[in-house]
Structures are given as C-alpha cells and as structure tokens.
Amino acid sequence: MAMYQSKDIEVYADKKWLEQEAVKEREQEKKSALVGFAKRLFRHKGAVIGGIIIILFIFIAVFAPWLTSYSYDKPDISAVLMAPCREHIFGTDEFGRDIFTRIVYGARISLKVAIIAVAFSLVIGTVLGAIAGYYGGVVDYIITSITDMAWSFPTTLLAIAFIAALGTGLQNVIIAIVLASWSGYCRVVRGQFLSIKQREFIEAARVLGMSDARIIFRHIFPNSLTPVIVMATLELPKAIVIEASLSFLGLGAQPPEPSWGAILDSGRGLLDQAPWISLFPGIMIMLVVLGFNLFGDALRDVLDPNS
Fold first, then answer.
1. Which listed residue, 21, 36, 115, 152, has the most CB atoms within 10 A of its CB?
2. Is residue 1 part of a domain?
3. How many CB atoms are located within 10 Å of the residue 96 CB?
4. Quick one: DSSP state of residue 224?
5. Residue 225, in any domain of the structure
C-alpha cells in the first residue's frame, strides 16, 4: 500500500513539475516575442523619430513647471508683444505673457484631452463592436445602423455639433471627441469578431461548452487587438487637432487656459505685428501630430507586415 502511495506522489510531483515547466516556457516565449517585437519596431526609422518626438512632448507636459519661470496666465504690461529674445525665446503676446510658457503648459492640455478621449472612444467602440460582431442579428443591425450614422459625418463637424449642445470647456471637448470618434473602433472590432468567430478554434470552444464571456475575452478579443492598437495610436494626433480646432474657434479651452488652438486664435489678428504668437503653437501641433503619425505607421508595419 505504501508503495502505491509513493508512486501516486511521484506521478503528482511529475505533473506539477511539467505544469510549472510549461508555464515557464510560455512566459519565456512571451518575453522573447516582446523583445523581438521591440527590436523590429525600433529598427524602423519612423518609430525612432516618432518615439523621440512623443517622449519629448510627454517630458515637456510632465515637467512644465520646471521648464519655465514665468506664469502662463499673468499679464506683464512691460513685455507686451516682445519679439523672441533671450528672456522670452518664443516672444510674448498682446498681454505680455510668455509664449514659450503657454506652449509648454498647452502641451498638458493637448495630451490630456487626446489620451482621455481616445481611451474612452476605444472602450466604447470596442465593447459595442464586440457585441455586434459576436451576437449578430437584431443587436448587430441596431449597433451597425447607429455606427453608420455616426461614421457618415466628419469627426470635427460632429464634435462641433456636440459642443454646441453641451457648451464650451475642456470637459465637454473630451465628451464631444468621444461621441464623434467611437464609431471607427466599433467598425474595426466588429469586422474582426465577424472574421474570427468563424474559425475552427472558436467552434471547438463552443463544443467544449465555454461561456460566451470566456470565448470573447480569452479567444476572440486578444486576436483582435492589433488593428485596434494601431488605430488608437493614429487617432491620438487626430484628437489633438480636433481639440486645437475647437479651441481656435472658441469652443474648447477658455481664456486664460493655454491651449495651442487658443494661442493660435489670439495671434490671428496680429500676424503682421507679432507672427510668432501663431507660428510657434502651429509648429508644436505639426510636430506632435508628425510624431504620433510616424510612430503609428511604424507600429502598423511591424504588427501587420502585409498592410
């Protein structure tokens, strides 16, 4: 009897050891895949240039109070409309406020609005797209109809319409961008779910009696992430441009908040006297959009070489 118990213990120990080795092997494969992905990504020149630009602007946004000694909202009558110089490297505006300071703090607004808006758009669009693609039928018809209606309008125009209903301010800008942008994610995720749910391993999961939630989150959703990640990366600069456009029109950030779009608008009537007021925020918008687009294109190429 003791001999059989000893054999059972040995078999159990062997099984546990094999399970542990299998877990270690999977973890090692994940690490190797991640390292390989990082190497491929940063061999891409666009990823390197775009990554440097993005990191630079994140650094500027995070450390804004330590990068300048001026206040972004306090006027200085003695420094009105000063051209770029040693004291004010980007010049000053019609109230004597330092343009460099306002641009540095404006980076916080642009990145915050873009990241929050894209995150909520991604979640809403992904959930609705997953439900429509997996269950189909009437649910799919209703969600697809709403998505098509939202998709038929230009995003900026739709955001302006929502702002007109909600009122001005950065919080409402975020809501407007979310309501105007979720449909793109919904279409992409729905298409992925429609394709993947027909594959053999999903049919096998159903035969084994797995729940819908387990099939969706464990089997279909991880295989749908690639286009969603790429799309989110490319939607970030779009959100920055929309926020700047709304602020330029007076519908976004309100004075004295230093949104890049608001700074552009303030210099619009002074282009002949002080072109630097509009020039530098315009350059910042161009650079950050370029950085995200370069990185997003590189990410798409690495994740989907056939695209």
1. 115
2. no
3. 17
4. G
5. yes
Range of the domain at 299: 42-303
Q: If you search the block for the tokens 């950085």, which residue do you land on?
A: 291
What's the rounded Cα separation, in Å, for the pair 115 and 245?
Answer: 17
pLDDT digits (tens, 9 = 90+) for 51-84: 999 999 999 999 999 999 899 988 888 889 999 9
DSSP assignment of 39-76 = HHHTTSHHHHHHHHHHHHHHHHHHTHHHH-SS-SS---
> Please, are residues 27 and 21 in contact by the beta-carbon 8 Å criterion?
no
b (16+ CB within 10 A) / e for 14-37: eeeeeeeeeeeeeeeeeeeeeeee
Asked, for residue 178, whether it belongs to a domain, the answer is yes
The first and second tokens of residue 107, run together, are 């980076």
Give me the CATH number covering residue 100. 1.10.3720.10
Q: pLDDT tens digits for 223-257?
A: 888 888 889 998 999 999 999 999 998 888 888 88
Q: Which two tokens stand for residue 45?
A: 């020149």
List the one residue out of 236, 287, 225, 280 whose CA is nearest residue 258.
Answer: 280
Residue 263 within any structural domain of the chain? yes
CA distances 69 to 82, 98, 100, 103, 145, Å, are 17, 10, 10, 13, 53
With a CB cutoff of 8 Å and minimum separation 6, the contacts of 113 are 170, 173, 174, 177, 239, 240, 243
Confidence (pTM): 0.84
Number of domains forming the structure of the chain? 1
